[in-house]
Amino acid sequence: MARTAIAYTPFVPNSHLTDVAGTTIDATLVTAGVVINSVNPERTLLRVTNTSGATKVITVKAGTGPQSWMAGSGDSATTVAATTGVEWLGPFTSARFQQQGTKLYIDFAAGTTGTITVFKLPKAL
Fold it and tell me: CB–CB of 73/125 below 8 Å?
């Protein structure tokens, strides 16, 4: 099963961003994971909520290939508190997390429910 692609929600420089609902974490996302295409890891933030009755782990996968020369440091695993947990992850180091083809992979522990939102930080103006 292929990973589900999630698009960026860009922050707006010198303006505002009304809160967004995010993408629902369902059985498909838990089984196959998520991919962010055309990723810029250093400008990527993730907001993950957990509505499950137990803590859950969100994993940002270490990259593969020669561009990920720091991948030996391994995946990044973050525990999200049960029921009302919210965690912000990132920005990320491309040398550790970028997959070939400028992608970022995220996996969820079995039984994870909640939402994930992928934000892109703007360049400084």
Answer: no
Residues 15-52 have pLDDT tens digits of 888 889 999 999 999 999 999 999 999 999 999 999 99
pTM score? 0.93
Amino acid making up residue 23: T
Strand ranges inside the chain, DSSP E: 4-5, 9-10, 23-25, 34-37, 44-50, 56-60, 76-80, 85-89, 103-108, 114-120
Query: Residue 28 gets which letter from DSSP?
Result: H
Q: Is 57 exposed, middle or buried (0-12, 13-18, 19+ CB in 10 A)?
A: middle
φ and ψ at residue 23, rounded to 5 degrees: -100, 130
CA distance 15 to 46: 20
Rounded-to-integer distance, Cα 19 and Cα 25, Å: 18
